Amino acid sequence: MATVSECESALREVAARLASVDAGVRDAHAVDRTWSCHIVDIDADFSGRIEGGTIASLVAAPNPAAQIKLAVGSDDLLALTRGDLNARSAVAAGRLRVDASVFDLLKLRSLF
Prior knowledge:
It is a single chain. Helix content is 44%, strand content 27%. The chain is an alpha+beta fold. It has a single domain, classed as 2-Layer Sandwich (Nonspecific Lipid-transfer Protein, Chain A). The longest helix is centred in the first third of the chain and has 17 residues, at 4-20.
């Protein structure tokens, strides 16, 4: 089981990766939405805002009104970040739950 600190670092790494995506690609697929991520096995929550296709803010707090909601185990979050676990496979296996509009899912999928 990963720690809260490791999960936060993983989410910050995702933010850095999004920021490094080619600006043209990012602009073409950008969404401006609130997001939240619940780490189920350690009962930790992170939330923030995606602006211009990048994670503009990340705080260690829940956001029940977030437009994009994720729920994942701590080890699965780290595996997703390392590239050891594919997001589509994780969703299909129930290891990653995503609650978002179809439009948001299609846009975000293009960035990853």
